[in-house]
């Protein structure tokens, strides 16, 4: 039995049996079962692209649902957060606080033209809620989202998240929400044209949880035009796609557009702090300006989180992580496709990606999940996709070294071989 010691706290047993027991009795039985399904692995420490478990077992972290573009505990983030922790972690919310002011300024320096005003929160869904509220202040009460889109699970965000299995237990949801097929600009225009000046369109530049769905070329520009033509507000949810993930600072940049509201989160805390942000045009933000108590939350803009934001932005900028994500993404996409097709042939429906958001879609139900579990055995963490069980998703850090990339290829090759042997026992594997 291994234990983690930390000065001043009681050491606790960290073996899987103890933890599964505690999860089952004190947290969530289903989550305990998932822990068993995913191989009973325990995580105790992380550094860069590696996660360390029981008995020093190491895993290459190509998962994390898009959080770790900088890797874990990037020195630029840790140093700022540690310094802030020692000085002033949580603010009074009455005084002026420099970390928040400079974090907002640093974020705006990287967001598309015209987006100038920042509201910070802790999680992604929270800034989706803030966007829904801002849209209402602008008279845009009719929400339009996309099928398969993922925006989080608070009540407002869940109303936009296009997946019945998450919505059904909690109905009735927010009224006035409609979904259109993602990537279909004509369908969007037909709907939005029926609600002139009243619509707020919320979508992702590439759908992440839907299984890395890349829209047709020109789609986002068309969406911007449709919103302009029919007086709709455009909210771009870049919580997963932003901050270099797609090989650009934002999906908006790749499309050459600016939304009215841009949402970011996940990687914004540099893999250290939970933090998210809404960035809006001054016009859209104006009601919050008039009454700063209209939309507040206790930990919004907390100095510790703000230090992490400044660290994350500095790390992405100084280490050239946007360019690295673009180059690494192209390389990984090609090689992962070669390996997958070599072992699974026609059972690979598609391998697609933009930057370091890469999805492998299978024709066989269950294969993506089985491969995810086998990959964990081989020492690589990937993601399943919350809104698509057919897609295995990789969201690796942009700080992978060449030796890490080799490790990934070799582990993926072994995992594919093992799974192919189980799924297609009569077909010889390479
Ligand atoms: N929006 C997108 C595009 C996401 O991918 C996610 C989370 O996966 C969210 C919103 C919700 O973020 P959170 O889970 O931090 O609430």
From TrEMBL:
Domain of life: Bacteria
Pfam families found in the cross-reference section: Aminotran_3
Gene Ontology terms for molecular function: transaminase activity
InterPro entries found in the cross-reference section: Aminotrans_3 (IPR005814), Aminotrans_3_PPA_site (IPR049704), Class-III_PLP-dep_AT (IPR050103), PyrdxlP-dep_Trfase (IPR015424), PyrdxlP-dep_Trfase_major (IPR015421), PyrdxlP-dep_Trfase_small (IPR015422)
PROSITE patterns: AA_TRANSFER_CLASS_3
Swiss-Prot/TrEMBL keywords: Aminotransferase, Pyridoxal phosphate, Transferase
Cofactor(s) demanded: pyridoxal 5'-phosphate
Family: Belongs to the class-III pyridoxal-phosphate-dependent aminotransferase family.
Protein name: Aminotransferase class III-fold pyridoxal phosphate-dependent enzyme
């Amino acid at each position: 039995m291994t234990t983690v010691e930390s000065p001043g706290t009681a050491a606790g047993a960290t073996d899987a049996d103890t933890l599964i027991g505690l999860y089952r009795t004190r947290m969530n039985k289903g989550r305990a079962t998932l822990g068993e399904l995913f191989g009973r692995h325990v995580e105790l420490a992380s550094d860069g692209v590696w996660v360390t478990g029981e008995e020093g077992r190491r895993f290459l972290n190509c998962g994390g649902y898009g959080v770790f573009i900088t890797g874990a505990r990037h020195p630029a983030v840790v140093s700022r957060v540690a310094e802030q922790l020692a000085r002033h972690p949580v603010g009074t919310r009455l005084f002026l606080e420099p970390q928040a002011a400079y974090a907002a300024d640093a974020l705006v320096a990287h967001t598309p033209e015209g987006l100038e005003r920042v509201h910070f929160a802790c999680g992604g869904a929270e800034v989706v809620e803030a966007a829904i509220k801002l849209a209402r202040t602008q008279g845009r009460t009719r929400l339009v989202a996309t099928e398969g889109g993922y925006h989080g699970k608070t009540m407002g965000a869940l109303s936009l998240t296009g997946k019945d299995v998450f919505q059904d237990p909690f109905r009735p949801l927010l009224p006035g929400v409609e979904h259109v097929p993602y990537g279909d600009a004509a369908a969007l225009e037909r709907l939005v044209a029926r609600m002139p000046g009243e619509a707020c369109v919320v979508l992702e530049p590439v759908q992440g949880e839907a299984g890395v769905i890349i829209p047709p070329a020109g789609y986002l520009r068309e969406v911007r035009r449709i919103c302009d033509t029919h007086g709709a507000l455009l909210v771009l949810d870049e919580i997963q796609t932003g901050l270099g993930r797609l090989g650009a600072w934002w999906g908006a940049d790749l499309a050459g557009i600016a939304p009215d509201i841009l949402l970011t989160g996940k990687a914004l805390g540099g893999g250290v702090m939970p933090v998210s942000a809404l960035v809006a045009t001054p016009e859209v933000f104006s009601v919050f300006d008039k009454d700063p108590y209209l939309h507040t939350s206790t930990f919004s803009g907390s100095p510790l989180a703000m230090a992490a934001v400044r660290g994350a932005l500095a790390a992405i900028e100084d280490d050239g992580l946007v360019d690295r994500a673009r180059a690494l993404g192209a390389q990984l996409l090609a090689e992962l496709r070669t390996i997958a097709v070599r072992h699974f042939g026609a059972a690979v429906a598609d391998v697609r990606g933009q930057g370091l958001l890469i999805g492998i879609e299978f024709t066989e139900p269950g294969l993506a999940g089985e491969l995810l579990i086998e990959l964990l055995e081989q020492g690589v963490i990937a993601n399943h996709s919350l809104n698509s069980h057919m897609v295995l998703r990789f969201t690796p850090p942009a700080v992978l070294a060449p030796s890490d990339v080799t490790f990934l290829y070799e582990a993926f090759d072994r995992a594919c071989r093992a799974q192919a042997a189980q799924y297609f026992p009569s077909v010889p594997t390479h």
